[in-house]
Amino acid sequence: MLDVRIKKALAHFTVDVHLRVEDEIVVLVGPSGSGKTTILNVIAGLDNPDEGLVTLNEQVYFQGKGQSLSPQKRNVGYLFQDYALFPHMTVEKNIGYGVKNKMALSRSDQLMNVLGIGHLVKKYPHQISGGEKQRVALARALATEPSVLLLDEPLSALDRETRIECQDELLRLHEMWKIPFIIVTHDMEEAEKLGDTIFFLERGLIRDTKVFHK
What we know:
By secondary structure, the protein is an alpha/beta fold. About 30% of the residues lie in helices and about 30% in strands. It has helices at about 35-45, 90-95, 100-115, 130-145, 160-175, 190-195, and strands at about 1-10, 15-20, 25-30, 50-55, 60-65, 65-70, 75-80, 150, 180-185, 195-200, 205-210. The strands form two sheets. The protein has a six-stranded mixed β-sheet with strand order 7-8-9-3-10-11, with helices on both faces. Strands 2-1-4-5-6 form a five-stranded antiparallel β-sheet, with helices on one face.
């Protein structure tokens, strides 16, 4: 279970949230600048809260007012909005980046097959479509076998048909992996399709929660 209890002062308000996430898909919804990406960055260790507690399966990521585990030591997969693929690396090398052992490399091959991108291994990011980039970035995020997966508006740049395909892919992968997924989106239709729980954020606070029994 992921437990996030944090306070962090931003320019115009303070993010003050408490999230408890089981092996489910949680969606964060809210206007731009409401603190959604800040929450993801704190979980990943890319940003520190001013105070609070972040734990995953009883491992402490952040505690008190400064004790913080480095991002490299957190078992977190992060899929950024722009995918952040390395343009000078092939698909195969992008996915293998950060993978530290042969067993995990074998897992990378399995992921490429599951995601239907095995035929792209020798191509570079500029040679593949938006939907293919999304799948490559997802494979890279999962290749290190994370205990939690963070996705920051991962489908916002895709056309509608590709977006629906990738939504279905996320649901299928979650069913296989059974780890917490936390997804940021502005799209309510997408949030309701993907989410087991939706948290509605406004100015750093959770204003409402919607739980689905799927």
